[in-house]
Amino acid sequence: MKKILLCAASALMLFSCGHPQGGLALIPAEKFDSTINNNPVKLYTLADGDLTMQVTNFGGRVVSLFTPDKNGEMADIVVGRASLHEYTDPKGERFLGACVGPVANRIGGASFTLDGQTYTVPANDNKVNTLHGGYLGLDNVVWDVVSADASSIVLHYLRPDGQEGFPGNLDITMTYSLGHGCFKVEYSATTDKATPVNISHHSFFNLRGEGVGTVEDYIMTIAASAYTPIDTLSIPLGQNESVEGTPFDFREPHRIGERIGQEGNVQLKNARGYDHNWVLDGPAGSVRSVCTVWDPECGRCIEVLTDQPGMQFYSGNFFNGKGGVAKNGKPIEYRSALALETQFFPDSPNQPAFPQITLRPGEKYTHTCIYRFGVK
Fold first, then answer.
1. 46 within a domain of the structure (yes/no)
2. Residues taking part in catalysis
3. Is the entire prediction scored with pTM above 0.85?
């Protein structure tokens, strides 16, 4: 049976200061101590029970996350970089551990129409579509640190009207907290002008530890009866389809690699594997369990809980070992980590059949995502 790691709060030091904490090889704080456009950037260390996490306010990025395996051995299970400059001038994957938005995922044709006005946003994805908010998305800005303690940090960013073409002054607060074996992400936002909002978290998880093995060996379940088919540039075709009888049916546990190369499946070919939105079962707006990932070798497992209608599961198909190295100096190899991004559906501003993401003055956007760690 799954054993959830129930954690009492612990008063570990907030800053890593470059010294191992409880035997953990933490990234030295000075590797992130800098300023960007006169805004201070720091590295913070949070801890609760068996979980220790390092976060920088540049992009709200999770740099490292240590959890125990079934034998109690600790490992860093997120892919990250060893210094700030490796994030500001990335080689390969840009979104490691980041907050992405203001519109996560893709906007087809790098434009959308809202209240009769057409907005053009950066075509930073194949020079055609917009991905994760454009070039200056929420991953590429310095967030203000509102507060921080031993196990949580509250970050704030005011995205100005017109930044990357998006309308409205979008006032965002994001909280990361550790407790009871969980990493909890909470977003809230308001605006002074109608604007699309779909913020998500983009950690890449490797359950055996950064740089070890492949996600194809993991056992996955996703509580979703439908998924979103895409074209060759990952833009939705316009309607969701049943997972029944397809390699996208994870309602019962399956090894990720079991069907990922199924011959003749156009959707797997389009994404080079899994990189799709799953239409989550259960009522959106209520936090519920939607996904589990378990590695039989080390015993680590992640349970994902959210109040969002969708989750993008990406199996690391575009990693190739050439996009720079991870914190431990190892290359980031093909399918060596996966992302589990709770969110609304991709290209929602251009897809009238999808749940809409327009936030208007007087309304409040909220989003909760919880990664619960355990062993079995």
1. yes
2. 202, 341
3. yes
